[in-house]
DNA sequence: GTGAAAGCGCTAACAG
DNA sequence: CTGTTAGCGCTTTCAC
């Protein structure tokens, strides 16, 4: 492959001049710029990122770590991150943890080997012990997206989780539901804890209580939500409404409803957090509390890029985005 | 950041010894291995991929280029590629073309800058002119997944497209349908051309003809399929069945059916290529011709890794995977 | 404006 | 088995 040296020889200039032309890092006469550009085209020269990164100490690589790219929520994150980063001259490395903390650490290690300039992290756990491991493995600007981790004082971009749960619970209670079950995500993940605690608070504000046996843990997993909802709905004291704290779990509940031939919202009302791309083709079109994930991702990348550029330490600042209640056809007044 | 030099000093050995330990590239006494590993741990040394790549001429990077990661079909590709590559000690760069040929070229350029060791490519076009551009931009082992490109003699892993269309058309005709519309993908993409031509053949084999005005072009786009299906279905001579040549287009047709309040399969039968992850929550559960995308992706990566290792030129060999007809609730005998 | 030269962190060849 | 050394391709002083 052609090197910068070949370009210099071909254009009849010095190596440093070629570099100056490529990077616009020093003034060069128009005539020379043209000669160099011609030479580059003629011999098909392409910069060698690794060499550049090695010498300059800047990889211009951003790592994006998500639980599972197969979840539409996270593939949107990946797509937006790619776009915004590319516009800023960075490339993205998107990797999946599969919700596994060890895998997360392995990926972090790879990101370090690649000397990424920054990290967007959707972590697998939020506890302090995990934060400590994270801090020992991360030495670049990082921003948390959606969830955050104790003792890891990076900036974070999240949904207003409290408001998200309130929106759903208030809606359900307003419809007259009193026996509501909550399908909850992974214990120890901030997203889940905040949503769940907000549910408890929302019930309390109505003088009601969210009983522990009405909280069905499902680890953010579609399958576990299905299993949990199946057991819940097959019992004779089934709830009149279900609130699922994430998109995949909402799908799991829908499947349970369907396989039990229970009508929704006739027999049971259902609402979830996270919107779906084509809700109208679902049976039934589901009411949700949507999060503005595109805007959140853009904000996360911008925040990260800022931090990389400014080289100032993060302060653990949290930016919250407002959720939106979207009413479709999956909830009805109780006893209808 | 610590370098290999620091490790050597700390362990009291030569740099080359450290390298030998890290890469297992030369025999080293157990005692020394331990000392080196301790030193690595103590000072938190992490290999510098860029330096290693520069020196060794091997980036251990694989580029995966897909149309849109937001499409579940392609996010599965990304996920499987990541997994298989990681097991083989490679990292993946997943990038989206957005079905845009210029963007594809831009990505290819970036991949070249990164000196990727190989490429999995789902290209935006299949014509010879595009093939020529591709050949001038690609200088590493490459395998096409799903589609292929004329004049670009790389190995390819695809579905048995002929059989896929036959499965769907034979099924529909067997149900008595005679007026069937086909929602087709992007003209000039091999996948689409092959599926479409196979449709024509399948009709002919039944002594029927697939009229051109029953082929609705929709560029593999959900929105265009929706628009096309809306016009098609609003007309008074609407077809009794629709065959959509990809998952997103199937969704578009479903939305059109729903917004016109047409019953499926009561008024119109619908079948598509590509399976959905939770068909039961769709309204109605859709019958499809599924492709074994996980196995296909694994095969593509293995083929690529083989080629990288063996350093022998690709021969343009095509491996085809069998499609499977999955009957659910979206097709009924005509006139029911 | 241009050119020479040092060196980023690493591998691999070679001499001990 | 260990140590020395020459670059991989590039950026970046610094002298001209």
For the structure shown, list the relevant keywords.
homodimer; 336 residues; alpha/beta; 434 Repressor (Amino-terminal Domain); Rossmann fold; 3 domains; 6-stranded parallel β-sheet; 6-stranded mixed β-sheet; 12 helices; 16% strand; DNA-binding
Task: Give a short summary of the structure.
2 copies of one chain form a homodimer. Chain A has 336 residues and is α/β, with parallel strands linked by helices. Chain A is built from 12 helices and 12 strands.
Helical content of chain A (DSSP H or I, runs of 4+): 40-55%
Kindly, what is the distance between the CA atoms of the first and last residues of chain A, rounded to a whole number of angstroms? Answer: 73 Å
Task: State the major sheet of chain A.
Answer: 6 strands, parallel
Q: Pairing-aware structural class of the strands and helices of chain A?
A: alpha/beta
The CATH class of the largest domain in chain A is identified as Alpha Beta
How many separate domains of chain A? Answer: 3
Strand content of chain A: 15-25%
Strand order of the largest sheet of chain A: 2-1-3-4-5-11
The run of helices and strands of chain A is HHHHEHEHEHEEHEHEHEHEEHEE
Mean pLDDT across all amino acids of chain A: 95
- Any idea of the CATH topology of the largest domain in chain A? Rossmann fold
CATH homologous superfamily grouping of the largest domain in chain A: Response regulator
Oligomer: homodimer
Residue runs with pLDDT of under 50 for 5 or more positions of chain A: none
